[in-house]
Amino acid sequence: MGAPDLVDPKASDPDSRRILARSHSVIVQSMTETSDPADPTPASPDQPTEAQFGPHRFYAGEGGGSEQFRGARFDVADLRGARFTDCDLTGVTIRDGWLVDVRISGHLSNFTVNGVDVTDFVSAELDRRHPERVQFREGQTADDVRAMWDTIERLWGEAVERAGRLPAAARAEQVDEEWSFEQTLRHLIFITDAWASRTVLDEPMPYHPIGLPQSWYPAADAAALGIDVAAQSDYAEILAVRADRMAVVRRIVDGLTDDDLGRRCHRSPAPGYPDEEPAVVECIGVVMDEEIEHYRFAVRDLAVLEAR
Q1: Is 245 helix (H, G, I), strand (E, B) or coil?
Q2: Based on the number of CB atoms within 10 Å of its own CB, is 70 exposed (0-12), middle (13-18) or buried (19 or more)?
Q3: What is the distance in angstroms between the CA of the first residue and the CA of the last residue of the chain?
């Protein structure tokens, strides 16, 4: 159900002063930003000089990063059914294409269709459908963090209730090769372990065996954390562990003060992540952005499964 990243908003942008969205942008590019960064083609010292392999990665991973088709031209080519996943498509031009039943997801900036930049339209429509994105973006205080977590608990409670009415096989089904509902919950377990328990609570090895890291995270590194990415977990166990992890975040946010938000955390989320010392609000911002984005993916795919 989708898999959820480096932007430096301009100081004059009002959104750059929003504490949750700003905090997440320090570490992973928030997919809820209305003010997307400029086209990432290196045009100035502030622009990325490396390829950006999708909005959920900070490196290509094992076997990734091929430059085989960089600058390639496809003229009068039959590309029906082609699939591009975690690819940097900066500067791509599709001219006189036949675009029928085309689906695109990812980070958009300066995205032009038939001469019309649709970036703001797409962002505004997502905000309309998912107002939790706006709430996340506008958070500034510890009270706002708590209110955001209230919303996340409510939304996921509703999603789990919907999933509970589906056959067991449907909860484990991958719609269009995306994570299943069960895998999504397992991923959010890992996110809580990494970005709340390890960073904010300073626990050295908080990872539950059924947690599911990002798809690009090396299997050997996951195994070193005690995680079996291929595990076939019982749904009841997944729900129980997920409830426990959500309670961890609830305890953190309930005790937060505005002064706590800037406290530095001395552990990285997991081995292989950049060696940084993010602030508490940055870590909680990652957790919350992952929660609301994977909720969006989850309800999208639940609608498909329910319609059958």
Answers
A1: helix
A2: exposed
A3: 17
Over residues 246-300, the pLDDT tens digits come to: 999 999 999 999 999 999 999 999 988 888 999 999 999 999 999 999 999 999 9
CB atoms within 10 A of CB 224: 14
- Domain 133-306 maps to which CATH number in 3.40.190.10, 2.60.40.1220, 3.40.640.10, 1.20.120.450? 1.20.120.450
Assign 63 to helix, strand or coil.
coil
How far apart are alpha carbons 29 and 107 in whole angstroms? 9
How far out from the chain centre does Cα 179 lie?
Answer: 13
Give me the helix-helix angle, 142-164 and 235-254, nearest 10°: 170
Query: H/E/C letters for each residue in 36-47?
Result: CCCCCCCCCCCC
pLDDT score, position 28: 38
CB 107 within 8 A of CB 31: yes
Average pLDDT over residues 102-107: 91
- For the chain, the domains span 133-306
